[in-house]
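User: Could you write out the 3D structure of this protein bound to zinc ion? I've included everything you need below.
Assistant: Certainly. Input first, then the structure.
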Amino acid sequence: MKGLMKIAMLSCKQSSILSEKQELVNLSIVESIKLKMHAKMCTASKSLSIDNKLIDQAVLKILEQRKEQNMSLTAAQREKILQALR
Ligand SMILES: [Zn+2]
């Protein structure tokens, strides 16, 4: 049973990778179960997951605010930046 648990348990790094993958695509059933098992048993990864979600939400909020405030560059500003880079 110990060997089976060792196979089933993810490391924190593996858990982090699956957590990020989950944001982009659907996980397989096995991946999803492993991730949930790890999250239940590892407080460090649970905290990291919460922190990442907060950061994602904060970035999305900033992007939405910029969109609402029409904070994009004008064509003249864009050209000025491009000239400075040349
Ligand atoms: Zn962990």
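Residues 12, 15, 38, 42, 44-45 surround zinc ion (CB under 6 Å).
User: Perfect, thank you.
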